[in-house]
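Anyone else keep sequences and structure tokens together like this?

Example one:
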Amino acid sequence: MTDESSIKRDARAENHKQLERMLADRFICQTVGVKLVEAGVGRAVAELTIGPEHMNGLGVCQGGVLFSLADYAWAAATNYDEAVVSLDAFVSFCKSSTSGKLIAEARETSRSRSTTVGDVEVRDEEGRTICLVRARGYILRPK
């Protein structure tokens, strides 16, 4: 699991209120193996080293794993102040990957009172785009 002190943060994200919750996600962090490496206001980077447990029947990294990596980066980029839940996400799988490290970089591009929109690019170690995700989230407000 990623240690909160090891995550690179921008100055505006010093009080990232939801970061502890992001790091407590046992499924993504422990089962899937995703590591959060940067967290900021509207931006985050997560990584995954592909192992045999991430492969599908064709011997390439499973699409659900790619989406899980992207979704986690998106959550870390948008859950900085208030809690955000996904409304929808659209995935474009661009290239298959069979080994090495994958890097997901998420950017929030728009935020209103109730929704947020952004993009995630998942790349391999050589910088090739593996998949692109356009996501939209709903900002939860206390009742």
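And example two:
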Amino acid sequence: MIDKIEAFCLKMLRNIKLGKLADWYEKHQEGMRYLVFGVLTTVVNIVVAAFTYYVLFFKLAEELKVSLSTAIAIVAAWIFAYVTNKLYVFDSKTNTLKEWLKEIASFIGCRLITAVIEIGLMNWLVTGLQFNYMVMKIVVSVMIIILNFIFSKLLIFKKGEKNG
């Protein structure tokens, strides 16, 4: 389905005389797909964070509210990111349970590192420095996307290599 949507969009670009842009996209398809799904992952993260922060946990102490909202949003984003990265971005193939377990363990391990960074930054920026929660959520999310791409590309979804 993603391939069909992508092909349709590339065809439209060529039809409106933006063939060079379509060619550039095709040349950088993996990075562009990561960008698209990274933005969607960030949307999942931000929507869940806003819902939990402003609706579910609005009566909690600020530090607890920030930590819980951020942690729940991160887990929701992880699930979305793992599935989309595996299937659509890096086209990762795991043929055995052992390969899949190694891949998912790498994914979770790397995401735990960036989660600690994200929660720490959010607490420092929102609780410590009193910046707006949603503004900082967006700023920090951009930094986390970059770190997650580096980890995904280099450590988790390695093309041309077996994960086991």
